[in-house]
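Reply to dn_fold:

You asked what the input looked like. This is it:
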Amino acid sequence: MNFENLLYYTKDPKNISILPLRIQSLNFLINKKNILKNINIDFIDNSISVIMGPNGSGKTILLKIINGLLKPSSGEIIYKDSDLKFNQRIFQSFVFQKPVIFRSSVKENLKFIFTLKKSNYRLSLKNYLEIVGLESLINSPARKLSLGEQQRLSVIRAFANEPSFILFDEPTANLDPHSTLVIENLILAAKKFGIKIIFVTHDIFQAKRLADEIIFMDKGEIIEISKAKNFFDKPSSSQAQKYISGEILN
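and this is what came back:
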């Protein structure tokens, strides 16, 4: 079974959409140092938004604030015209660069989401694991999996949450090519079914494969937001031009 079939047999994410997601005048300070400065972004549709920028530009912190793991020092995050609340937050998922795996079997790692959501799933746990090629490892200790297998488990667990949108923080960094391909294919398929993807990567080639739009950050600020083709063909800022050419280190 492929992922598109899986989505067809589960709930339509568009029915639980909490878009548009708006970030307004957001600032984040640590020890009086401004880490994020006047961030303004509107996520209004199910396109794939890729956030890029040098190390230290604030990309991961921005994702954590969107998710609710961190609170902004000032500004607002508005989900479908209301503030962040738990019953809205459960309709999003976060996939970290380092897989977050529970000390249990592969089956129990995924079963946790079924219990949390209390949804009427029409597919089995094994169906989900088939999507990422882990069905034969269903009873294996999850922490005994390879790094690529662990991340595939993390990603399919995020999708099993039936989210309106998913935040990805460099999920394929240091992964094998097969695991990278599986994850990218899941992301592209999910977009067709109304799942919003917000994706951080340093990999320019990956961004070209996935992105509909690029949000380019530097030193805690949004430098430019543009369609992916326009960004890579002719970036409007000197910082982005230097980043693409390799003059600014990732």
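The beta strands are 21-30, 33-43, 48-52, 74-79, 82-83, 92-95, 165-169, 196-200, 213-218, 221-227.
Hope that clears it up.
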